[in-house]
Amino acid sequence: MDGTLFDGRPIESLSLIDAVMPDVVQTRQQAYRDKLAQQQAAAAAAAAAATNQQGSAKNGENTANGEENGAHTIANNHTDMMEVDGDVEIPPNKAVVLRGHESEVFICAWNPVSDLLASGSGDSTARIWNLSENSTSGSTQLVLRHCIREGGQDVPSNKDVTSLDWNSEGTLLATGSYDGFARIWTKDGNLASTLGQHKGPIFALKWNKKGNFILSAGVDKTTIIWDAHTGEAKQQFPFHSAPALDVDWQSNNTFASCSTDMCIHVCKLGQDRPIKTFQGHTNEVNAIKWDPTGNLLASCSDDMTLKIWSMKQDNCVHDLQAHNKEIYTIKWSPTGPGTNNPNANLMLASASFDSTVRLWDVDRGICIHTLTKHQEPVYSVAFSPDGRYLASGSFDKCVHIWNTQTGALVHSYRGTGGIFEVCWNAAGDKVGASASDGSVCVLDLRK
């Protein structure tokens, strides 16, 4: 990478809505560019810095793992079933690097029922990689080219694919692109439908659990519920006063959305106004997630706070302040009531540009672990299906895997590009990661 993230694609090719409302798209693109420039500058100093790096605790909290001088150490009495010979570094023979994308890979997601990994890139493609044991020729890839109609023929959209989501049955993949279209593909890579009503880039999209609706959020300030069978827009919700950044279903017909307008709306299909609005953040709200029961909604913001909301009240239940830079994303653990792991405690993970990951006990409103191994902004966190492990990915090119109970570092992998996304397969034995240099890696965590 030469630091020009959108290489080969002139900024003038952005759509009209980007020109009218350039702040969000440009600031997000600039953030990616800045990170790449930082990454290259840091590479030169990395060797010297590594020897001086101290894993210092913030705010007097215990630093998980007690690492010193950046050494990968784990407590001698730590006998974890996924530990590799007492060493946290994942050996090269346990990491598969998938190459094919021609630009940064923003997102990746495992199929919920098979070892197919989908990835979305700045090269205007999504790809489906087959990593199952019985795949004959190693890891095969399907290329899902995102095209638009021009002059009666299909031409590449030249826009980033930045969001994707599998339906719960694993039969269909939805993708969202900066060309303004959402698309539905079969798992064999065939385009099933194109969903066009947004005016400008799509920032997020999600299937509902039932699989009959897809929800999308766009720079055009709206969210849309789509009928997955017909490809028609069921309802467009024009309630935000600025670009909508994330959406999450609470039930099969109710969802929350967040925006750079600092507001969170909860909306229901058929209702022509939000059924609830949460206000309290003082900067753009980057991500929202309902807990496994759908009772609590977590949100994170550039205001450096994490807030927990309930439909039963207007003010937040918890205002969690510990990070000292923007919080980019959050994830709930798949534990507690309403999950496959009902006897384990519910946790929330937050990933921040302050280079830390935090694990929270939401019932008590306290931070239980601060994970301080990363050296650069953390863009992604993901819990294993049993909730025992957390993967984190950062622009320091590292994927770390942590024990959620102890906060100990269990595995570490250094890739070749800044990590945008990490995700676990359904079996909980592989982690996928997508990177800024166009690579996608798969870490095999079986002994």
From TrEMBL:
Q: Which residues form a coiled coil?
A: none
Region (Disordered): which ranges? 52-72
- Which PROSITE patterns does its entry note? WD_REPEATS_1, WD_REPEATS_2, WD_REPEATS_REGION
Q: Which Pfam families match?
A: WD40 (PF00400)
Q: Keyword Signal, does the record have it? A: no
**UniProt superkingdom:** Eukaryota
Q: Which GO terms describe its cellular component?
A: histone deacetylase complex
Which cell locations does it reside in? Nucleus
Q: Which CDD domains does the UniProt record give?
A: WD40
Q: Where do the WD repeats start and stop?
A: 98-139, 161-185, 195-236, 278-319, 320-370, 371-412
One GO term (biological process): regulation of transcription by RNA polymerase II
* Gene3D superfamilies in the record: YVTN repeat-like/Quinoprotein amine dehydrogenase (2.130.10.10)
Q: Which UniProt keywords apply?
A: Nucleus, Receptor, Repeat, Ubl conjugation pathway, WD repeat
Which portions of the chain have biased composition (kind: Low complexity)? 57-68
Regarding protein family, the annotation reads: Belongs to the WD repeat EBI family.
Question: Sorted alphabetically, which PANTHER family does this protein's record hold?
Answer: F-BOX-LIKE_WD REPEAT-CONTAINING PROTEIN TBL1XR1 (PTHR22846:SF40), WD40 REPEAT PROTEIN (PTHR22846)
Name of the molecule in the record: TBL1X receptor 1
